[in-house]
Amino acid sequence: MNIEDRISDKAFMTTVINIMASNDGFGLYYTQHCRERMLERDITTSDIIYVLTHGIIVDYQGKADHPTNDKIYKYKMVGEYAGNEDSIREIAIVILVEVDRFKNPVVKIQKILTTMWEDL
Hints:
Blueprint: H1 10-22, H2 32-41, H3 45-54, E1 56-63, E2 72-80, E3 90-99, E4 107-118
Antiparallel strand pairs: 1-2, 2-3, 3-4
Helix pairs in contact: 1-3
């Protein structure tokens, strides 16, 4: 079984993304929509990184519509808001992830599409 057979396995993909986001040199790419939502909702880059390193995938949303690449998938991740210890809020992000066993790296976060508060 290769990694492309496990793209819908939320627990497996959560672990892969958590490890990737913990590595030095990890880069993030935001859509304009995401940047606007971050400003509007006062969500920081640090908050996004915290969700990527400690959050969980709660929804596998299937293949993403992409004009040139059919190996990009959409996930929703949720993680605790680390900015305020008294808060019970969570942050949700929607991400595009490329999974291609013939590339290096095999799994790559393409973009952060949006972010929002996920109230408990």
